[in-house]
Amino acid sequence: MEGNIAEVGQYIGAGLAAIGSGAAAIGVGNVAGNFLSGALRNPSAAASQTATLFIGIAFAEALGIFAFLVALLLMFAV
Question: Which residue ranges traverse the bilayer (predicted)?
Fold first, then answer.
């Protein structure tokens, strides 16, 4: 009986850790949306901010990858 409870705990923990992947998708959308809003307001400055856009997307996506890694570790390694 204890083994099943521990397995259920692993899956619940992995599911909670996987929420970070969804939050990363929201973060990427927020970064891209704000960039697009700023680019539409001032199109001449958009070209100089493209690198900042990609850095922001990379950081947001890295957090999602870390959350996915934690979820996999909770499911299979613990």
Answer: 12-33, 53-77
